[in-house]
């Protein structure tokens, strides 16, 4: 107290200093208010300006080299042959490219039950990409139905991919972006597993042939369901349209449809070796409609049994008359 | 006029104005009803609402610009709001006065001393603002829990007003209900009663808005202080100090609520409201320790993700969180809702209710629809809630937008959820009783509830014909209750032909309204059937308004219930594939 006894009342200078601080504070508050002022209020829907479109991964068509069908029980040999018949892996993957492989990893189920893509098959495609095609990087990715990490582990695909140098990308929330399919009815402002594909130069799909109760069969087109995010199962209300739209949305370089063992019943989960039947067929194709039209025969289904095939064909995703493509045949004994 | 008299007039004026706005938050055209009364004005003046929503949404919703006025005045004059405007502050002021008025002066001085615990309010503020500020981990606006304007709005509108009005039914013709209002009451009552322990307990220790003003007012141009350094040191200035800011010594400017009692109580005219610091010294900034600051910051950062671990914003969302029409998608909604209860107050049908804990901690006191409460679900031709929402957590939609007509025809109506029929409880479905109250009340055109006719043989309804003559059929059985089947809902079936309506019956005879196609003979079997209309829901038409649920006569657990699946506000809760 004593120290301040001599203090004089506030001087003009000190008052101005205080007033200045107050003035700056007021100016700052007003500026912030002005800059952030929102006269209209929030709008109901997310603005559509950050929509993405999946890249087109397709390669140039070569007549007579659209589809190959190889008979045999050893997937490593049949896939090598099937790709070779289409012009070799070099046709699809150029040196230094990044390849995204999208196997069907939907379920946390062991490989022997055939509910997921075969790990040896995935491994061989990875090896081809790194080997003859001299790819820079191969990623293996899917957005499974069951717990993603468990799916990649139990299906053996995670280990098979990583053992051959591929990187497994699990579906993390930030990797999804919204897309709208031009000309589509269902895929509107919908999250897709975009980021891994945006970084890739090529996309290869690997799918087993499976019974699927809602759609009839799950093959290479249905495999792209695994690129959808969000509450995708509402699309089951119109399964044929969504599969056709997936075929319109995803333009892969190559699809590999594995009919070595097909899930003939109790699909798409299976769960017993007795759900499988050995049909010893592997299809490679740049036309996934054609591949699936061929594949459905392995399930004793006709093309007309699967309405999504005709829908996809009329949307321009491929042809249902796969024989018109003059597929190349081979048998590995 | 003494300045404290002016202050009291101001407090009474603003308090009455606040009460008036509470009353006027009633749908209607009378002078005391909503008309154009700015019933959100106090919430708009509240910079905690403005700053909170700025942090969560990075925008300043236009009506909240009023807060800038408060901010500017606070920067110039200090915490004037607390002792001159704030209705909650006035309430505490009055309660503290009542509770402590007869205490001796030394005791009063003791009560109004500065307490270290007064820093708690700054920590509360830091926690809330931190929770609001980190969108990457999920921003959640929770200021409304303790924001005094939200708190008193909620307490008056959802508690005091309905209780006081329940005996006279002036404000509302039908009694109002607010689920879980006991908790709102408990908080309110505790805040008021704590004035008996420490005057203005809430303002001094808890109030995050007061804390904000304390920070804003640290450069106040005019401040309370001593205009001479020497005084008799009688401490009378601290006798009625509302802020606990110790004007006799080093005055804590950020605690001073500008009650001017010190100025009034000083016999020596040593204290004045002046443009310079107190000559006895002053402390301008809030008294927060570094440790307290860091801990509340960390607490705030962790709080939102920790609360969200329960998944209420994700797959574990609660199906009963049915938001009012125009509510933003859940995450955006939680960035704006300040739990003020204005929507619950204005809702003419009383269907909007404060959420309890079941919907998740974050949702406490946010608006949800409870179709069992209130008079008739969400009224088709009403958009009152969005019009009063101060932060546009519920957008101010038009009737056209709500109903999906006019230029909103493409978007379709706003759906709040979807009605589901519980066939185990539904009278026609489960008990063979005619009903369809739900279908009748469905306000959508064409109706979202439709029926299918079903003829069901009643229990013990197969009878043996004794004699048939004209339209009268006598039965061997003598078990019918007279005229029970004359209601128009009962039919008689013979030989698998079309059921024929029963016109009258006695214990052992039935009079049918038209002849059977084939005449029954003695010993033939006939069956009495009830004609049921069984309700079905057209999921494309249902808007989730809940009137069916409200009207369903199965009153305990309704046989038709709305849950939020299918609500149009959020993309991830859709149920119907829209093409």
Summarize the structure.
The complex is a heterodimer of chains A (333) and B (579). Chain A has 333 residues and is an alpha/beta fold.
State the CATH superfamily name of the largest domain in chain A: LarA, N-terminal domain
Q: How many domains of chain B, as an integer? A: 3
| CATH C-level of the largest domain in chain A | Alpha Beta
- What value does the Rg of chain A take, in angstroms? 28 Å
Termini separation of chain A: 105 Å
Which spans of chain B of ≥5 residues are poorly predicted at pLDDT below 50? none
Number of DSSP helices of chain B?
21
* Beginning-to-end CA distance, first to last residue of chain B: 71 Å
Multimerization status = heterodimer
Which class of secondary structure composition applies to the elements of chain B?
Answer: alpha+beta
Domain tally of chain A: 2
Number of helices of chain A: 10
Question: Can you give a write-up of this model?
Answer:
The complex is a heterodimer of chains A (about 325) and B (about 575). Chain A has 10 helices and 12 strands. With about 325 residues, chain A is α/β, with parallel strands linked by helices. Chain A folds into 2 domains: about 10-40; about 55-330, LarA, N-terminal domain (Rossmann fold). In chain A, helix 4 (about 120-130) links the parallel strand 3 and strand 4 (about 135-140). In chain A, helix 4 (about 120-130) runs parallel beside helix 6 and helix 8 packs parallel to helix 10. Chain B has 3 domains: about 5-285, no CATH class; about 330-415, Alpha-Beta Plaits (2-Layer Sandwich); about 450-535, Thrombin, subunit H (Beta Barrel), CATH 2.40.10. Helix content of chain B is about 35%, strand content about 15%. Chain B has a 6-stranded antiparallel barrel with strand order 9-10-13-12-11-14. In chain B, strand 12 and strand 13 (about 510) form a beta hairpin. The radius of gyration of chain B is 32 Å and the shape is elongated. Chain B starts with a helix and ends in a 16-residue tail after the last strand. The mean pLDDT of chain B is about 95. The interface of A and B includes residues 40, 185 and 241 of A. Strand 1 (about 35-40) of chain A pairs parallel with strand 1 (about 60) of chain B.
